[in-house]
Amino acid sequence: MSSVVRAVVWGANGMAGGEVLRILAGHPSIRVEGAVSRSRSGQPVWHTHPHLRGSFPELAFCSPEEGKATGADIAFLALPHGTSAPLIRECLDRGMKVADLSGDVRLRNPADYEQWYGSAPLFPELLDRAVYGLPELYRDKLKGADLASGVGCNASCSILGLYPLARAGLIGDVRIEVRVGSSEAGATPTTGSHHPFRSRALRVYEPFRHRHLAEILQELNLSEEGVTLTMTAVEMIRGVQMIAHVNLSRRVKEAELWKAYRSAYSGEPFVSLCPARPSHLRLPEPKLVAGSNQALTGFTLHEDGTRLVVVTAIDNLMKGAAGSAVQSANLLLGLDETAGLGMLPVYPA
To answer: Which of 127, 193, 273, 330 has a CB 3.0–4.6 Å from the CB of 335, allowing a cystine?
Structure first.
């Protein structure tokens, strides 16, 4: 790639698209050539994302036709599920690399789409071409590839928390509880996500399974019979907190768990293990990672050695979406994996 990589962001008017723009505003090697929004074409980007006025004072949303004419090297697709696949294929045919943020190519088995999303994938051949966009698991495959899939924010949080256990064969069965902020519902309010109905609420909206469970099962090689995923909307804007109640496959000592987690995440730029002490920092909360691409994970083992609680926290718009997309794009493009992603969490938030 040339020293300056040209990027176009589709769905740039949405929350995830806005986060991609925020990251790219400080990226040393990627320049935004177009911010596509069919509904807001011609309007200044900062009218929708006022925090970006200083970074993009002259940038206006462009039409899809204008976006395709930018001649960009890479496309970030922050589009709703079911709308990305045709554009993915078109971009690839044009010789562009693609960092998708949707769910259109995140599952490898076409039959899984019918089960979890209610319809078959539009272009199943893309599933084999896509690399799951979680660099902690697929760093080597992402290097030099041309398509990184989107990752579900709840799935990312759960996978990062449970991956060391799955890799060591320690998961017997697991009950996952995920607490999510309102930004996960997107920019368009619904009865469930609109502030007057959601504020001060603890609303369980998925008691047993959510479509992001498909990714968890896929990436951790688990059977659905031994996994449940409960989703709760909480009084928070940014953030995901995953609490996993794990029945281990055998009795272990805490030292073995530390070894498994340190082995899995030693040297990872964006995953940190919480300390055993002080106790109030052992199990993380999303406030500790707000605005960053960081993931925190901690655990505590029951005295019987067979029951474990794992807690992981991420910012859903960052490590759960735009942050992982840019991290994956850096690998696709042969850039420093951490480029543009050095922002620290905002605390207190």
So the answer is: 330
